[in-house]
Specification:
The chain has 118 residues and is an alpha+beta fold. It has helices at residues 4-19, 59-64, 69-85, 103-113, and strands at 25-31, 36-44, 47-55, 91-94. The protein is built from 4 helices and 4 strands, in the order αβββααβα.
């Protein structure tokens, strides 16, 4: 019997095998029931390098105590601004096997709105 997590991991593995050797930056999104994380990763010499990251564990969010669609929009804006400062414009959106819905969709739309292209 295959459960939801195994289906998600299968989708994730299939996507990453196609994107792995494209030599592009990847915007990787991961979510839990309490938090959402976004990272910019670059694959170089068979190693993955984390260039930038943003999540709801940062000091700004500890004061607000939110982790919903509103928080996902703020994370998308934050990661897009950090990328633009480093002249990273084009990325590949890796949703880690999650459905493009809810917080994932809000983060992606916010990042696009603030100048990231994918």
């Amino acid at each position: 019997m295959i459960n939801k997590k195994k289906y998600r991991l299968r989708r994730c593995k299939k996507f990453r095998s196609n994107v792995k050797f494209m030599n592009k930056y990847r915007l990787v999104v991961y979510k839990t029931s309490k938090h959402i994380y976004a990272q910019i990763i670059y694959f170089k010499n068979n190693n993955s390098l984390v260039i930038l990251s943003s999540s709801t564990l940062e000091k700004y969010f500890k004061n607000l105590k939110i982790c919903n669609i509103k928080a996902a929009k703020i994370i998308g804006k934050n990661i897009a601004c950090k990328c633009l400062k480093r002249n990273i414009l084009n990325v590949v959106f890796d949703k880690s096997g999650f459905k493009y819905h809810g917080r994932i969709k809000a983060l992606a739309n916010s990042a696009r709105k603030h100048g990231l292209l994918f």
